[in-house]
Amino acid sequence: MTFLWAFLVGGLLCLLAQLVMDFTRMTPGQVLVLFVVVGALAGGVGLYGKLVQFAGAGASVPLPGFGYTMVEGIGQAVRHKGALGLLTGGLTAASGGIKSAVLFGLLASLIFKPKA
Amino acid sequence: MQGEKTPYWLMTQKMMPQRPIVKNALWAFFVGGAISTVGQGVLWFFMRHGMTAKEASSPTAVVMIGLGALFTGLGWYDRLVKRAGMGASLPITGFANAMVAPAMEYKAEGLVMGIGARLFTIAGPVLVYGMAAAFVVGAARYLITGVA
Hints:
The structure holds two protein chains of two kinds. By secondary structure, chain A is mainly alpha-helical. Chain A has helices at residues 2-24, 28-44, 47-55, 57-60, 64-81, 85-111. In chain A, helix 2 packs parallel to helix 5 (64-81). The radius of gyration of chain A is 16 Å and the shape is globular. In chain B, helix 2 crosses helix 3 (53-73), helix 3 packs parallel to helix 6 (92-105) and helix 6 packs antiparallel against helix 7 (111-118). Chain B has a domain at 7-105. In chain B, 78% of the residues lie in helices and 0% in strands. The chains are: A mainly alpha, B mainly alpha.
């Protein structure tokens, strides 16, 4: 059942991003930035967490999930360490993704040649 | 985004080709949904091996990013982006694609300013504003509730 929700929610988020891009004529980079910020905001008011709960990867794999992850991480860090957590929590929670993106990205750029 | 609606701006708007909005949206929906479903499969795999859904989301991101980087290197992912737009770019695999594609293309400019800098052409802004937004949201919750 979660698989169906993952498909629908993941698909709808992408559809929404595509509509934003087509109607506003933003560049892909601008749309990605917008959606990360929206994910952080929706995470802050508790909406995105609910979406992740029932749609799983359908909400966590699209980029707003990245903003949400950082907000969640900040929340957790502040509970443990106080205000310093505002600075350390976001990247701690997102570190697996960021570090693997840099490492895999570097590796792939070194190994592969651009296709003409 | 645009400034004033100058005659020139209106002219460029008229000259721009019309986008097939419905077709683009459908492609984005199905491809984005499919990639998310693959992600759910990876998440499910980690959960079967004893992780909670929360614990499993980080390794799932790692696997999806690895796949995105690999398929970009092989030249497949850019074709998918061309067709599915945000359906391929919005999932985390697309984040990997946005890092690898420019880095690979500007490889000739060297390891430092070629690959090293171009990895962050798109990822840089996403990280900057993502971190800033998360900080602001976290700080606001901290001020309002006392806990974030």
